Amino acid sequence: MILDGHLPDSIAQAARALRSGALVGLPTETVYGLAADADSDAAVAQVFASKGRPSDHPLIVHVASADALQHFAREVPDFAQALVRAFWPGPLTLILPRRAGVAAAAAGGQDSIGLRCPAHPVAQALLAACAAPPPGERAIAGLAAPSANRFGRVSPTTAQHVQDELGRELLVLDGGACAVGIESTIVDCTRGAPVLLRPGAITRAQIEAVCERKLRLKDDLPDPAPRASGTLESHYAPEAKLRLMDARALQTGLDLLGAEAAHLAVYARTPLKSASSRVLLRRMPDDAEATAQQLFAVLRGFDDAAVRLIWVETPPDTPKWEGVRDRLRRAAA
Questions:
Q1: Strand 216-217 and strand 195-198: pairing?
Q2: pLDDT at 205
Q3: Quick one: which residues bind ATP (predicted)?
Q4: Is 276 marked as binding a ligand?
Q5: Predicted local confidence at residue 234, as pLDDT
Q6: Peptide bond between residue 315 and the one before it cis (omega within 30 degrees of 0)
């Protein structure tokens, strides 16, 4: 069931559902999430079951504001506080030491927890309604909300994507198409220095400028990195096989296949030609942000067209494109 997320009655209905232990499809500025009360192990177990996700693969907990840090985090280093001030609400997840006794299932059993304050107005409205319920109702401090799709598959960026993937019985708040389009940047703050676990819309340079120190990579430090969402080698994968290629290889491949080419989609910045009308040619924007915003919708569209192969022009190896490159590399793994 899809409801208009901008209506107060829809927010109230979704908040009641979450307090009852049900799941809700939640729009954020990155992708749509599958939300549950983060402190309810039973509700969180439904998230893992619905997605087919291993229960030791942690979920990101979404909060209404930085005030919720004290509920979930045992400590917040100075550089993490600076990142919160600079980028919350927004597409940044911080991995922090977890307070004992809270959100254990959502954290995948780890002593750390991923926290994010989303910027989407519908997400903000629902989180506020959960945190400050009507008299006599139970408050919810945060929502565990991984992407609302089957584990390892392409993330949803519209309410219809969620319903197509998880069924009509799920209550989904429609907040329109996601503005960012790829998942949040994840920074590990548990090892004494900021460590990049997953690139996203917020770049390394932006993070380093706020922290006033170099952003480390997960293998730079001797202690093992905590497990985090979206960091498996193979992830974000469409049904069709995806392959990354440069523009010359793409055109050579199309020339070799000629008029007999079929069941193939191509997503490229460079203008390409095919002798076959059965090849789907889709132009990739020259801008990294525009590409991120449409990327998952494009991949889902190719699957809907029943192609068997997706050829994608490898994005530029520059900081602005790092998030898109990461998602495509994992989709092709």
A1: parallel
A2: 94
A3: 53, 147, 155, 198, 236
A4: no
A5: 67
A6: no
> Do the annotations mark residue 236 as ligand-binding?
yes
Query: Would the annotation count 10 as a binding residue?
Result: no
At 85, list the tokens: 């001030």
Query: Which residues touch 209 (CB under 8 Å, ≥6 apart)?
Result: none
Q: What is the DSSP string of 120-181?
A: -HHHHHHHHHHHSPPTTSPP---EE--BSSSTTBPPP-SHHHHHHHH-TTSEEEE--S-SS-
State yes or no: 147 annotated in a binding site. Answer: yes
Separation between Cα atoms, residue 46 and residue 41, nearest integer Å: 9
Sign of CA dihedral 28, 31, 32, 35: negative
User: Which residues lie closer than 8 Å to 219 by C-beta, 6 or more apart?
Assistant: 225
pLDDT tens, position by position, 29-77: 999 999 999 999 999 999 999 998 888 889 999 999 999 999 999 999 9
Residues in the chain: 333
Ligand-binding site membership of 30 (annotated): yes
Q: Comparing C-alpha atoms, which of 155, 159, 164, 200 is closest to residue 177?
A: 159
The two structure tokens encoding residue 172 = 């989904």
116 known ligand binder: yes
User: Cβ contacts of residue 96 below 8 Å, gap of 6+?
Assistant: 69, 72, 73, 74, 75, 76, 80, 112, 113, 114, 115, 189, 190
Burial class of residue 67 (count of CB atoms within 10 Å of its CB; 0-12, 13-18, 19+): exposed
198 is known to lie in a ligand binding site: yes
pTM for the full predicted model: 0.93
Distances in Å between the Cα of 187 and the Cα atoms of 44, 221, 232 are 23, 14, 16
pLDDT digits (tens, 9 = 90+) for 160-190: 999 999 999 999 999 999 999 999 999 999 9
SS3 204: helix
Angle subtended at Cα 199 by Cα 94 and Cα 112, rounded to the nearest 5 degrees: 25
Half-sphere exposure of 233 (CA within 13 A, CB side): 1
